[in-house]
Amino acid sequence: DQPRSRGLGDVYKRQKYNLWGVADENQFEDPAQVSKEIDRSLFMAKCFRESGYPKVPDPDYFNREVRLDAYIDEDWELREDDPLVQTWQACEEKLPEELKDEAWDT
């Protein structure tokens, strides 16, 4: 009996590297979920801009979060009465059903 050879797919799944170097943590994510996350963040960024925060950039595949860096600094604290928090909550209420996520919106 000789040990069974693993298929090439099994080898690639276990590797920590891809053809270009270290594997990107995003490369193994579900494309549908990634698309939904980006669409949700795009919606939120647009809503912020329409609510008076013009410096909020659009997220992309590599930076999916809504970036509020232009409006907060290292001393900023999350408070319910903060206009940024209130804007976030108002934008979340406007989210279309298909962009809501049970983990975030329950």
Provide a compact summary of the structure.
By secondary structure, the chain is mostly helical. It has four helices and two strands; from the N terminus they run H-E-E-H-H-H.
Strand tally: 2
Order of helices and strands: HEEHHH
Q: Specify the overall morphology.
A: globular
- Would you tell me the structural class of the helices and strands? mainly alpha
Report the helical percentage: 40-55%
Question: What topology, given as strand order, has the largest sheet?
Answer: 1-2
Q: Provide the residue-averaged pLDDT.
A: 79
Strand content: under 5%
Number of helical elements: 4
CA radius of gyration is 20 Å
* Stretches with pLDDT under 50, minimum 5 residues: none
Distance between the termini: 55 Å
Largest sheet: 2 strands, antiparallel
